[in-house]
Design goal:
The complex is a heterodimer of chains A (247) and B (262).
Chain A: E1 7-18, E2 21-32, E3 36-40, H1 47-54, E4 62-67, E5 70-71, H2 79-85, E6 86-89, H3 101-111, H4 117-130, H5 146-158, E7 164-168, H6 176-191, E8 195-199, H7 203-209, E9 212-217, E10 220-225, H8 227-232, H9 237-246
Parallel strand pairs in A: 3-8, 3-9, 6-7, 7-8
Antiparallel strand pairs in A: 1-2, 1-4, 4-5, 9-10
Chain B: H1 25-48, H2 50-59, H3 61-89, H4 94-108, H5 112-126, H6 131-156, H7 160-168, H8 173-203, H9 215-226, H10 229-260
Helix pairs in contact in B: 1-2, 1-10, 3-4, 3-6, 3-9, 4-6, 5-6, 6-8, 7-8, 8-10, 9-10
Classes of the chains: A alpha/beta (247), B mainly alpha (262).
Chain lengths: 247, 262
């Protein structure tokens, strides 16, 4: 990954407390335009918290997060503008159950991007085609399998033409046989050059797709580097132990 | 509202009329027996004992119309007040939240009959408004507090991820609420709102105490002229029963339709 690319997400010195528990300890890292960063670590390590801080679903207590030149924690910055540019895919899909698949995709386009409905529909159908689910456009989410729902959720965030997408354990709620179809869509996005920050337990995906792996434990970044380095020769004991437990 | 620990079993029996659902066969059968039984009884009395029942049936319809107007007017106004109160109760703004909570607590602590008297005479001191309106306002202010709690519970029953998904797409809180949260909450609150609607229909008989000629008051007027108290109140009771059963059926049909297209 060329390092001369522009920084898309710049996190510096971020800390966060839940009461007296420190969830994030002085986290700093940068995600460049087009880069794929995978964050791994045991549960409770703060990886979802830092991801959710990027579009301010969580607020942080100190440090700064700059997304596409906008300071996320500046009260003067319109947070909606940041969220328009940064898509998010959740572990539990979070499709809107009262809307059809197509309406799930068109809603934010028409309400936020102010696209005319016909144009939004065209964009949506092309994206549903891309994630291989166009025939379900008129169905309600409850009629879809978990894998299908997550692919719709990815299409929904793509419909906003985001500059980056955050994935919060996108395959953790899926049955094993459906994980592949979601990862395939994510790999396609990666090949097309989407900027991605992915929290996941899928080590195969991390190895194949990541430009950089960040390993977190107890709210700190313990190790950061290329996937080859991390998976074959991790420096820290904690990372070695984690890898031996899951591989 | 304190959070109950999950292992704490709580039996929740509302005082509102039961809306028949198909799965509850016992209640469903009871609904049919009661509804058609009441109608047949009315017909029987009108034809077999026309004296005095036919005259009662001629005297009362004006009152049915008034009861209906008060009920519908109050439920519409109460829904608006309730939605505002419910949103206020979940607001992060302390003043808004405090005001809404205070409204709910004060109103729920005062008997409806007292509130009707209070609003009727309090309003009467400052403005001259028709009796019917002050009855509607009194009922709506009272039921708005109960509906506020229903709306609050309905909105809070929608998973947090729905708001997060909407926000992460760039929607404002207001847009997320209108387009994502409230449409889902509406399905959840329809049955309890239906129950409140029926409870309100029954409680509307309280307005007969102020100068509103509703069903009960028309009955009292008739009975006090003719002294046929037993016959009059039999008819009044049957008509209230037919109305509440009719509306409970209507609401359960609405629910079925809403659930069908999911």
């Amino acid at each position: 990954m060329p390092t001369d690319r522009q920084a898309m997400i710049e996190i510096s010195g971020v800390s966060k407390f839940f009461g007296s528990f420190q969830a994030l300890k002085n986290i700093s890292f940068t995600v460049r335009d087009g880069e794929k960063v995978v964050i791994i670590g045991p549960s409770g390590s703060g990886k979802s918290t830092i991801l959710r801080s990027i579009n301010r679903l969580e607020t942080v207590d100190s440090g700064s997060i700059i997304v596409d030149g906008m300071n996320v924690n500046d009260p003067k910055v319109d947070i909606c503008k940041v969220r328009e540019e940064v898509g998010m895919v959740f572990q539990s899909f979070n499709l809107f159950p009262h809307k059809t698949v197509l309406e799930n995709l068109t809603l934010a386009q028409t309400v936020v991007r102010k696209r005319p409905f016909d144009e939004a529909k065209k964009v949506s159908m092309a994206l549903l085609e891309k994630v291989g689910i166009a025939e379900k456009a008129a169905a309600y989410p409850a009629k879809l399998s978990g894998g299908q729902q997550q692919r719709v959720a990815i299409a929904r965030s793509l419909a906003m033409n985001p500059k980056a997408i955050l994935f919060d354990e996108p395959t953790s709620a899926l049955d094993p046989e459906m994980i592949g179809e979601v990862l395939d869509v994510m790999k396609t996005l990666a090949r097309e050059g989407m900027t991605m920050v992915v929290v996941t337990h899928e080590m195969g995906f991390a190895r194949e797709v990541a430009d950089r792996v960040i390993f977190m434990d107890h709210g700190s970044i313990v190790e950061e580097g290329s996937p080859e380095h991390f998976f074959t020769a991790p420096t820290h004991e904690r990372a070695k132990l984690f890898l031996s437990q899951i591989l | 509202m304190p959070q109950n620990p999950t292992n704490h079993i709580k039996i929740d029996v509302g005082e509102g009329a039961a809306i028949p659902v198909k799965s509850d066969t016992g209640l469903f059968t009871a609904w049919r027996i009661a509804f058609f039984g009441a109608i047949l009884t009315c017909l029987y009395l009108a034809f077999v004992k026309p004296e005095p029942y036919r005259e009662i049936f001629q005297f009362i319809p004006d009152g049915i119309l008034v009861t209906f107007k008060v009920t519908v007017g109050a439920i519409l106004l109460a829904s608006i007040i309730g939605l505002i109160a419910g949103l206020g109760r979940i607001s992060g703004n302390r003043i808004i939240n405090g005001t809404a909570s205070l409204y709910v607590e004060v109103i729920r602590g005062i008997p409806l009959l007292v509130q009707i008297f209070y609003i009727y005479y309090a309003l009467g001191r400052f403005v001259k408004i028709p009796d019917m309106f002050s009855a509607i306002i009194a009922m709506a202010v009272c039921y708005g507090a109960y509906l506020g709690e229903v709306f609050r519970a309905g909105i809070q029953s929608i998973p947090k991820g729905q708001m997060e998904a909407a926000l992460s797409l760039g929607m404002t809180r207001g847009q997320a609420l209108r387009k994502v949260i409230l449409p889902q909450a509406f399905r959840v609150v329809l049955p309890p709102i239906g129950n409140e609607f029926i409870a309100l229909l029954k409680d509307s008989s309280l307005v007969s105490i102020i100068a509103v000629s509703d069903l009960l008051r028309r009955g009292r007027e008739y009975a006090s002229e003719t002294f046929s108290y037993f016959e009059t109140y039999t008819v009044i009771a049957l008509i209230y029963l037919i109305m509440t059963l009719f509306f409970s059926k209507l609401i359960s049909l609405m629910e079925e339709r809403l659930n069908a297209n999911r």
